[in-house]
Structure formats: structure tokens, C-alpha cells
Amino acid sequence: MADDRVKRIKEANDIVAVIEGYLELRPAGAARFKGVCPFHDDHNPSLIVDQQWQNYKCWSCNKYGDVITFVQEYERVSFSDALELLARRAGITLEKTQNFVQNQSRAAMLDVIRWAAQQFHECLLDSPLAEEARRYVGSRGLTGETVRRYGLGYAPRAGEWLVQRAETNGVSLEMLEKVGLIAPRTEQNGYYDRFRDRVQFPIRDARGQTVGFGGRILPTSPLSSRAPKYYNSTATPLFNKSEHLYGIDHARQAAGEAGYLAIVEGYTDALMAHQLGIGQVVATMGTALNDRHVQQVKRFAPRVVLVFDADAGGDTGVDRALEIFAGHDVELAVATLPDGLDPCDLLVQQGAEPFRRALECAVDALEFKLNSVLPKSGMPNVEEKRRAVDAVLGIIALAPPMPGQAGALKAELMVNRIAQRLGLKEETVWARLRELRHLKRSEGSAAARPPSDETGQRAAKAAPEERQLLELLLADPELVAAAAHEIRAAEIAHPGLRKLLEGLYDLRAANEPPTLDLLRPRLDNVALAVKALELQAIGRVVPDRAACWRQLLAFFQDRRLKRAKRELQTRLNAATDTASELELLRQVQNQGSELRTLSSE
């Protein structure tokens, strides 16, 4: 049975061992462990992992679930893909059924993208088609050892090179399309390659798995005049350029040793730093540092150093850095390179030491911003001070204040620093910061939207009895048959709970056990699956389920009769002839007697 496989995979994957593969856990009592929650900006370890009950809960953001939901949420994959990842970890082979292992699973996507990376790499190393690409790589100072270690490749200019190799090797074109490497032609049958005449930089996650590509068009390419210089893989279930960092798989250990992670803007910048022994360097993919990057970086180092060219002091990237510095429990500094050189050029021309010194001399983001908005020489006048205060506080006001005493302390230190630099009273700076925060909230309130449930509708609070019904049924599948006979799914007003009940009823109608393990592959929403786990856990500790079931059954019968009476009363009020009035009145009276009988039982 499918639910037996789910149970077997969960039993083979201890939740503590699995989560320790993603983040550090420390003992926190008998069979309990504590760690920094990866699902929010956690300032104090608030994730509790319970080895006895094989679940986790964050007491700050309320994330809850079992080993499968953790992998789903952390890896951002479907239930079946998370199940397959855990099955592979435990050495369990899943039967290839539609419910569990889809052809377009995460594991299959990783396989096909690994195949493509190998094709690009072999092409760069050996193919006559890549002669110009090899010259370009050499001109950037990258050695053959670096090319091999980081798997650099080349995508030939021909529009169907990868498509043809896939057909020859029996590789699924649909899967290549899913991972963003090829696309269907709009006016004719077939596919074309998305990457053409580009040096390919495989983008790997922290575990070293290739999840996407960054392609640099060759400067000599006839396509360069009408194509972007850099082109990343499209967003896929594996890859999102706003959250990955190039080189993190190689930089993570060096970052732990150095105590910080340096972030540059280009692939070759990171590669050249690694080549010259500065391993704690990664690159973004054409995006500014953001919250997702910070969450990933904090797993490997407590400090981040952003590297900018000498003329980038007013760049929006620095402003974003200050906003992140103000709103996160992270030490964030900015390094400026000499002579306006990019990191790769500086490293090639002057070696490792100037770049290393720039990293060591990095100043924190607040100090960097203050230096950029104040006059380079002389005392600032009144207007210059006012503009400087608003420029800095306007950015800090955008960041949500950090919670707790740590957040209050950081805010006080920032305000103190600004007041000292500008010769102002702290009370004055505090007042202006509160004013700007109120202004930002007012500007953003018009765009605010109410929270939504898994259907995209406004989230509604569930009736207690509806919630209790699902608690019982998820905890005791044997009650589902009786519920299906007595309570229609349409009677459940809350859309999420109704979807769970419909799923249980569908399983029973298909002669399958109406268990949560079997229901979960049918749920396309992680939050709803997590809620189902919470409901099940509550239902399991109900002391007398039979008595609770009788009370719930009476409640739904009572609610049904009351609704029917209201409908009849409405029709009675609208009746236009005596016969209809008498018949409807008789029905209302009968409904009333049924309600009195029910309440006396």
C-alpha cells in the first residue's frame, strides 16, 4: 500500500539525522534538539526537533511538521519529490507509480541537468566548436584545473546542439524543457537550445548538486549584439536566481574558517578568488543581496562582506545592504576595491593580497552609507546634515525592526552612531526614525492584502466543530466511513478543512484506507499538509473519541436542521397564497419539534 511506503520511508529517516544534514542542532533535553529555524529570520535558536515524536516545531514562526514536510519546505519540492529524496537517502527503491515518483520529479531533473552539464563541459574541453570559448576562458586567467574543478562548459552556437545530443542519447526533451535548457518552437514542431555560443557556468547548491546554469555570451559571437551578456537558467523547481549563490558549495568550508563570506557580482570574480586561494567568495546572479541569500549565508558564516567597485558607493546594492543590516541578525560590511577594478581584473593584475586587504578593511554597512552621504571634506552644513539623516534613516525605516532585546539593542546602537557622527541628540534621531517608519507603513498599507488560504481566497477562521471533526478523522481513519454517511463535505465552510475531508472521502470511495499518509500525495499545498499533521496530533490525544464523535454528530445534525428551518421561514415570509402558507407553516413546526427532540437526547 502507498501509505505503508510512506511509513517505511519515515521510519528509515530519523528526523534529527535528516535535519542535521541541513543545519546545526544541539541537545535541548531528553530526545529533543534545538537549532536556528531556516524558515524565518531566526535570531535565537527557536526550532525544536523532537526525536521521540519525529516532528519539529518553531516557537517563533510556528512552522510544524515531520521529516517529509521539512524536506518539502526546505528544498521547495512536492510531496512525492521529498519522498523520493528521503527514499534515496535510506536506500529504498520506490515503485514507479503515478502517486509517488513522477517522471518529472526533482531527482529526475537533477539527473538530466547533470547530464547536460557534462555535455557542455566535454564540449569546452575537447570540441573544435569551442576553440573561441577556450581562448576567452584563458584570457580571463582561468586555469585548466579551475575549469575542470568547477565544471565550466560551452554551449555551441548551433540552435539545436543540445537537442540533437539528447535525442541521440535517449534523454527526455520534456525534462530538458522543464529544467529550462531547451524551449519548444512556436511556429513549428521541435525544440531549440536556450543557451547558444556561451561559456556555461554550472550553478550548484550548497550540497554540490547542479541546479542551473549561467551563460556568458562570447565577446566575438555574432549573437552578442542582440543577446544579453549574461543569461541565467529560467526559474524552475530546482533553480531561482534570487536565492542561489554561485560557488557556495566550494566556499562554505572556507567561510567557516575565515568567519565571513564575501559576495561579488560575477562568476569569474568568484572563480579567480578561489583560484588564488581566497575560498570564502561567492557571487550573486545579477540580483542584489536579499533575504533569501542572508538565510543561506547565515548557515555558514556570521558575517557577510559585499564587494563593490570603487565608484559603486551610491549604488542601490549598498542601500539594500543597509536595509538588510538593519533588519537582520547579521554582521554586514562593504569592501571597496582600489582603482575601480572588478575583482577578477584586480586579482589577475595585482595578485591576491590587494583583494585580501580590501576584504579585511571592509566597513559595516551603516558606516559605509554615512561616509557616502556626508561631504568628503569639511563640516557638513545644516541642509547636508538633514539630507544625510533622511538618506540613512529612510533606508533603515524600510526594514522590519528586529524582534526582542537583540533587535532593540541593534536599533539603539545604530541611532547612537548616527547621532554621534552628525552631532545630534539621540531623541531627535529616534523621533525622525519613528516618523519615517510611520510614513513607510502608510505608503505600504494601500498595497497590503489580507492573508489567503491554499485556494487563494481570503483565509477564514474555521468553526471549532469543523476543526474538531478533522482532528478526529485524521487521528482515527475508522471513523471516516461513518462521517461520510452522516456529514457531506459541502457542509464544511472552511475551504482548507473541506479539501481535507473531500480527500478522505475520495480515498474511501476508491476502497483505499483514508489515512493521512495516503492523503498527502494528493495535497498540492505544503501549508495544508502541515495543518493536517497538527490536526492529527491534536486528535490523537483526545481522551474519548467515541464521545467526541457523538457530540460532533449531534452538532452537525442540529446545524443542518436550523439551516433548513431558516430556509423554510424565509419561504414562508415570501408565500403569496394561503395553501402554501399552511404547508410551509406545518414544515416549520415539524422542524421545530425535531430540534427539540434532538436537544433533549
Structure, described:
Mean pLDDT is 83; it is low at 97-104, 445-459 and 594-601. The chain starts with a helix and ends with a helix. The protein has 601 residues and is an alpha+beta fold. Helix 11 links the parallel strand 12 and strand 13 (281-283). The longest helix has 30 residues, at 545-574. Helix 14 packs across helix 15 (352-360) and helix 20 (464-475) packs parallel to helix 22 (495-509). The strands form four sheets. A five-stranded antiparallel beta sheet has the order 1-2-3-4-5. It is globular and about 95 Å long. The chain folds into six domains: 2-90, Zinc finger, CHC2-typedomain (DNA Primase, Chain A, Alpha-Beta Complex), CATH 3.90.580.10; 106-232, DNA primase, catalytic core, N-terminal domain (DNA primase DNAg catalytic core, N-terminal domain); 248-371, Dna Topoisomerase Vi A Subunit, Chain: A, domain 2; 374-443; 464-542, no CATH class; 554-600. The relative contact order is 0.06.
Number of helices: 26
State Rg: 30 Å
Strand content: 5-15%
At the first level of CATH, the class of the largest domain is Alpha Beta
Whole-number mean pLDDT: 83
The assigned CATH architecture of the largest domain is: Alpha-Beta Complex
Number of strands: 16
**Ends: how far apart?**
41 Å
What class do helices, strands and sheet pairing give? Answer: alpha+beta
What topology emerges from the helices and strands here?
Blueprint: H1 2-12, H2 15-20, E1 26-27, E2 32-35, E3 47-50, E4 55-58, E5 64-65, H3 67-75, H4 79-90, H5 106-126, H6 131-139, H7 144-149, E6 153-155, H8 161-169, H9 173-178, E7 182-184, E8 191-193, E9 198-204, E10 210-217, E11 230-232, H10 248-258, E12 261-264, H11 267-275, E13 281-283, H12 291-297, E14 303-308, H13 316-327, E15 331-336, H14 343-350, H15 352-360, E16 363-364, H16 365-373, H17 382-396, H18 404-422, H19 426-445, H20 464-475, H21 480-486, H22 495-509, H23 516-519, H24 526-540, H25 545-574, H26 578-600
Parallel strand pairs: 12-13, 12-14, 14-15
Antiparallel strand pairs: 1-2, 2-3, 3-4, 4-5, 6-9, 7-8, 9-10, 10-11, 15-16
Helix pairs in contact: 1-4, 3-4, 11-14, 13-16, 14-15, 16-17, 17-19, 18-19, 20-22, 20-24, 20-25, 25-26
